[in-house]
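Archive record:
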Amino acid sequence: MTPLETLAEVSPVFVIFPVIAYIIKMSLNYFTRKQMIEKGLVGEEAAKMFKTNAETFLPSSLKWGLVLTFVGLVIVILQVLPTYVSSEIYFGVMLIAAGAAMLIYYGLASMKAKEEEKKKIE
Protein backbone atom coordinates (compact mmCIF):
# COMPACT_ATOMS: atom_id res chain seq x y z
CA MET A 1 0.00 0.00 0.00
CA THR A 2 1.47 3.34 -1.02
CA PRO A 3 1.48 6.39 1.26
CA LEU A 4 -1.02 8.10 -1.04
CA GLU A 5 -3.48 5.21 -0.67
CA THR A 6 -3.05 5.33 3.10
CA LEU A 7 -3.72 9.06 3.08
CA ALA A 8 -6.82 8.51 0.96
CA GLU A 9 -8.15 6.07 3.55
CA VAL A 10 -7.48 8.38 6.50
CA SER A 11 -8.48 11.72 4.95
CA PRO A 12 -12.26 11.32 5.43
CA VAL A 13 -11.66 11.38 9.18
CA PHE A 14 -10.08 14.83 8.87
CA VAL A 15 -13.11 16.06 6.93
CA ILE A 16 -16.00 14.35 8.73
CA PHE A 17 -15.05 15.12 12.35
CA PRO A 18 -14.56 18.88 11.90
CA VAL A 19 -17.88 19.11 10.04
CA ILE A 20 -19.66 17.22 12.81
CA ALA A 21 -17.99 19.40 15.46
CA TYR A 22 -19.03 22.57 13.61
CA ILE A 23 -22.65 21.37 13.31
CA ILE A 24 -22.73 20.55 17.03
CA LYS A 25 -21.26 23.95 17.91
CA MET A 26 -23.77 25.81 15.76
CA SER A 27 -26.73 23.89 17.18
CA LEU A 28 -25.57 24.47 20.76
CA ASN A 29 -25.19 28.19 20.04
CA TYR A 30 -28.71 28.22 18.60
CA PHE A 31 -30.26 26.59 21.66
CA THR A 32 -28.30 28.86 24.01
CA ARG A 33 -29.46 31.97 22.14
CA LYS A 34 -33.02 30.70 22.12
CA GLN A 35 -32.99 30.20 25.90
CA MET A 36 -31.39 33.61 26.45
CA ILE A 37 -34.13 35.29 24.40
CA GLU A 38 -36.83 33.38 26.30
CA LYS A 39 -35.39 34.63 29.60
CA GLY A 40 -35.10 38.18 28.31
CA LEU A 41 -31.32 38.37 28.14
CA VAL A 42 -30.79 40.43 25.02
CA GLY A 43 -28.44 43.30 24.45
CA GLU A 44 -24.73 43.96 24.35
CA GLU A 45 -23.87 41.46 27.10
CA ALA A 46 -25.60 38.65 25.22
CA ALA A 47 -23.98 39.68 21.95
CA LYS A 48 -20.51 39.57 23.52
CA MET A 49 -20.97 35.89 24.35
CA PHE A 50 -21.27 34.95 20.69
CA LYS A 51 -18.76 37.38 19.24
CA THR A 52 -16.46 35.57 16.80
CA ASN A 53 -14.38 38.31 15.25
CA ALA A 54 -10.68 38.19 14.46
CA GLU A 55 -9.68 40.12 17.59
CA THR A 56 -10.90 37.24 19.74
CA PHE A 57 -8.74 34.62 18.04
CA LEU A 58 -5.72 36.72 17.09
CA PRO A 59 -3.73 36.35 20.35
CA SER A 60 -4.15 32.58 20.43
CA SER A 61 -3.22 32.23 16.77
CA LEU A 62 -0.16 34.41 17.28
CA LYS A 63 1.00 32.34 20.23
CA TRP A 64 0.73 29.00 18.46
CA GLY A 65 2.13 30.43 15.26
CA LEU A 66 5.24 31.57 17.11
CA VAL A 67 5.64 28.24 18.93
CA LEU A 68 5.26 26.14 15.79
CA THR A 69 7.55 28.41 13.79
CA PHE A 70 10.33 28.23 16.38
CA VAL A 71 10.01 24.46 16.81
CA GLY A 72 9.97 24.02 13.03
CA LEU A 73 13.10 26.13 12.67
CA VAL A 74 14.87 24.03 15.29
CA ILE A 75 13.90 20.82 13.50
CA VAL A 76 15.18 22.14 10.17
CA ILE A 77 18.42 23.44 11.68
CA LEU A 78 19.13 20.20 13.55
CA GLN A 79 18.42 18.15 10.42
CA VAL A 80 20.79 20.28 8.34
CA LEU A 81 23.68 19.94 10.79
CA PRO A 82 26.30 17.53 9.46
CA THR A 83 26.90 15.98 12.90
CA TYR A 84 24.73 13.48 14.73
CA VAL A 85 22.42 15.01 17.35
CA SER A 86 21.05 12.69 20.04
CA SER A 87 17.32 12.59 20.65
CA GLU A 88 17.68 14.07 24.16
CA ILE A 89 19.40 17.16 22.80
CA TYR A 90 16.90 17.33 19.95
CA PHE A 91 13.96 17.28 22.37
CA GLY A 92 15.60 19.76 24.75
CA VAL A 93 16.36 22.30 22.04
CA MET A 94 12.79 22.03 20.77
CA LEU A 95 11.46 22.76 24.27
CA ILE A 96 13.82 25.73 24.63
CA ALA A 97 12.58 27.09 21.27
CA ALA A 98 8.95 26.66 22.33
CA GLY A 99 9.69 28.44 25.61
CA ALA A 100 11.43 31.30 23.80
CA ALA A 101 8.40 31.66 21.52
CA MET A 102 6.11 31.83 24.57
CA LEU A 103 8.29 34.51 26.13
CA ILE A 104 8.21 36.55 22.93
CA TYR A 105 4.43 36.16 22.84
CA TYR A 106 4.20 37.31 26.47
CA GLY A 107 6.19 40.44 25.61
CA LEU A 108 4.01 41.21 22.60
CA ALA A 109 0.79 40.59 24.54
CA SER A 110 1.86 42.79 27.45
CA MET A 111 2.78 45.61 25.04
CA LYS A 112 -0.63 45.28 23.40
CA ALA A 113 -2.37 45.34 26.79
CA LYS A 114 -0.51 48.50 27.78
CA GLU A 115 -1.50 50.18 24.50
CA GLU A 116 -5.16 49.30 25.05
CA GLU A 117 -4.97 50.56 28.63
CA LYS A 118 -3.60 53.89 27.40
CA LYS A 119 -6.42 54.14 24.84
CA LYS A 120 -9.01 53.60 27.58
CA ILE A 121 -7.45 56.33 29.73
CA GLU A 122 -7.48 58.86 26.86
Remarks:
- Residues 1-51 form one domain.
- The helical segments are 3-38, 44-49, 54-80, 87-121.
